[in-house]
Amino acid sequence: MNNKIAIITGASHPRDIGTAICRKLASKGIDIFFTNWQADNEWINRLQQEIENLGVRCVGMEIDLSPSDAYKVVLDSVELELGTPSILVNNAAHSTRDGYLELDGNTMDAHYAVNMRTTFLLSVEFVRRFKRERANGRIINMTSGQDLGAMPGELAYAATKGAITAFTKSLSAEVAPLGITVNAINPGPTDSTWMTDEIREHLLPNFPMGRIGQPSDVAEVVSFIASDEAAWITGQVIHSEGGFNR
């Protein structure tokens, strides 16, 4: 996968999924452009150096993805710094607790702006700028299994992430003739920045493999979907949950 450029949104913490994806794709020889939000600058610099030590280029960008023009800023920046990307991983997400008693317009809008609008507009602008002669294209969206079970208390998050499934399937049909695949990954509950010991204790019995999913598990699936070997896979939601029982 040498000479390919990947955009990964939402790499803001040493233990998050976006960071694991950056590391994995970099290990495959892919140049990395990642976005972060309110991350520790010292850690960001260390991550960039770690990735560059793998022999690839790496650029990190702090950006709030909620403004309506954020997608253009990201794509303009990656083209200026690295070149035209062939891989887009829409990993960034906004999530707060709500439920029917708390859900209001501001909460809904905040989730929509990041989870839907920026994900969708990044995807279509990526396609519009795509140069097929350089490589096959890959768009990989992250979802959370909203079609598999209820998420009480997270109505805005479930609704906006669930919309990604419909978008993925429809966009995949449109852009297949261009040599671009579009897929989504549902990693199930993953032990990243949001889990506490109490949550781990509650969830562990639901994993028949005896452990909770790790960010590195997600990164392995992303790496495969981004590879040439996955060229025949498109329009799919891949449930990589380790057999998680709801």
Automatic annotation (TrEMBL):
<dbReference type="InterPro" id="IPR002347">
    <property type="entry name" value="SDR_fam"/>
</dbReference>
<dbReference type="InterPro" id="IPR020904">
    <property type="entry name" value="Sc_DH/Rdtase_CS"/>
</dbReference>
<comment type="similarity">
    <text>Belongs to the short-chain dehydrogenases/reductases (SDR) family.</text>
</comment>
<protein>
    <submittedName>
        <fullName>SDR family oxidoreductase</fullName>
    </submittedName>
</protein>
<dbReference type="Pfam" id="PF13561">
    <property type="entry name" value="adh_short_C2"/>
</dbReference>
<dbReference type="InterPro" id="IPR036291">
    <property type="entry name" value="NAD(P)-bd_dom_sf"/>
</dbReference>
<keyword id="KW-0560">Oxidoreductase</keyword>
